[in-house]
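Dear colleague,

Following up on yesterday's call, I've attached the two folding results inline so they're easy to grep. Please treat them as preliminary; we haven't cross-checked anything against experimental data yet. The first protein's sequence and C-alpha cells come first.
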Amino acid sequence: MQPRLIRLVAVGDNVVDRYPDLGVMYPGGNAVNVAVHARRTGAESGYLGAVGTDEAGRVVRDALAAEGVDLSLLRTVDGPNAFATVRLVAGERRFTGGREGVSRFRLSPADLVRLAAADIVHTGECSFLEGQLDQLAAHARRLSFDFSERPWDYVEEHARHAGIAILSSPSGSRDKALALARRVRALGPATVAVTLGAHGAVLVSEAAEAAGSAAEAAGSLGGSGDVVAWGAAEPVAVVDTLGAGDAFIARLLVGLARGEDLPALAVAATAYASHACTSYGAFGHEAPLSKETR
C-alpha cells in the first residue's frame, strides 16, 4: 500500500548561497531547503517566504518551481534577495558574509488559515518569526522548529511552541547530544533531534509520536519512557556539507508524518543527509555569479 501523501509547508528564510571561489550561486535557506527535500522524498510541499525582484530572487523562485514546490504563498517584494557568501574548506561550508535583503515578513491571518491545512509546518531560527511563533503553534497541526546552534536561553524561550525541535551540535558526543535532546524534550516538544554532523544524529520522541517503535528496538538507545534512536552518518565522498542538516530535517519530518518506525527513520534521515553532501549547493540548480550578484 502506498504511504499517505503528506503535506508540508516551510515558512521563512531563503537565500542564494554565493560561492565566489567557484563563480556560481545556488538557491538555499533552511525553509527553502526543507521544502525542496520534502518534495523529493515524496511529500507535497509549499514554501511561504519573500523573494526579491533581482536575479537572485529569480534563481530561488525558478528552482522552487522546477522542483514542484507549491508557490501559492510566495511573496515577491521589490528589492534585493537575501544572500550568503560561502567558502569551502575541505568540503566543509563556511559562511563569510551575507545580507537579509527583502526576506523579513509578517504572517497574515490568511497565511495562518492556509498553514492550518498542512500536516507539518516548518520554520527556524533564520526566519525572524519568533514574534509570531505562538500564532504559528496555535494554527499548525504540528510545528517543527530548527534551533540550529542557538544558545540555551533561546531554546528555552521558544521550544514550548514546537512539537518537533531540531538542534545541531556538530562537535558534541552522542552522550551529550542525548542529554541535550532529553533536556529539550522536557520543555514540551514531542520529538527532539540533535544532529552531530559527520557523527550522525540522536532522536528522542514520546512513545505516542513514535508509533510502531519500541524503546529496545534495533538502533534504539533505550530511555525513560521515550523512544530514543541513533542514526550514524553514511561514509560518502564529501563535496559540500551545505544544506545537509536541512536534508535531514526534511526526511525526518516526512517520516514522522507517515508514522515511520523511529529507529529506522533515524537511519534513513542520516543517510539522506549524508548523500546531500556529495554535490555542491543545498539541492543544486547552479547559476553563474554575475556583476549584479558578486
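Below is the second protein, in the same order (sequence, then structure):
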Amino acid sequence: MSITKEAELTGMQKASEAVALTLKEMIAYARPGMSTKELDDYGAKLLNEFGARSAPYLTYGFPGYTCISVNNEFCHGIPSSKRILKEGDLVNIDVSAELDGFWSDNGSSFVLGNDLNQHQKLVEASKQILHKAISNIKGGVRISDIGYIIETEAKRRGYKVIKNLTGHGVGRGLHEEPLEIANYRDRRNPKRFKKNSVVAIETFITTTSTYADTLNDGWTMVGDKGGFMAQHEHTIVVTDEQPIILTAMNGI
C-alpha cells in the first residue's frame, strides 16, 4: 500500500505495534521444554489482546497463528505439541497480523538459551545485514540493488542467501506489490521502491543452501542442501530519507 493520509499511517503503526510486541514477548517467553504449540498459543493470546487477527491463518488457512521453525526448518514451521524446544535451538518466529484493515509483518531468528551449537554468529549476521539493507532504501532505489547489498554482505561473512524467498509489499493485505524483494540482484526485476509505500524487508541468510524446498506437510520449508538459516524482518515505510521502521519495537 501507499500511505496517502495520516489515518493510514496511524493504522499501520497500530498493526505494526501488535505484531512487533507479540514477536518480542514470544521470544522472551520461549524456553527449553516448551512445545512450539504452547508458544504459538501464547502468541495467539497476545494478538487477541491487541484486537489483531493472525494473517497466515486468515489468508492461507495456516494451521497455527504464528510460524515457528526450529533448527533445519527454515520457515513456515507448523506449531506442534510434539515439537519440544531445547537449549541451544535456532528458532525462528514470524508474526503477521491484521488490525482494523491494516496488515503488518515481522520475524526473528534467535538462539534459545546458551549458544551450544554456534548459531549466534549467523543470527547476528542476519540482523546486521537487515539493518544495512533498510538504511539504503529510499524512494527511487532499485529493488535489485538492495538484493545485491544483502547477498554481498552475506558472502563477505561466509554465508549464502535463499533465492526463492523474498520480502514483499504489505499494508492492505499480507502480500502486495512489490511481490518480490529478493536477497540477491535479480536483473529481471526493474522495479524501484516508491516513496510512501509500505514493504516488509526480510533477510534469508544461510550456511549452505540457496533454495528452500517445501516438506510433505505442505508448509514447512527446508534448505535444498541442508544447513541452517537466520531470518529477520521489519515492516517499513519508504521515504525520501531513512525509512520509517514501523516494527522497531520488536527490538531487532
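For the second protein, one point worth flagging: The longest helix spans residues 6-29.

Best wishes,
A.L.
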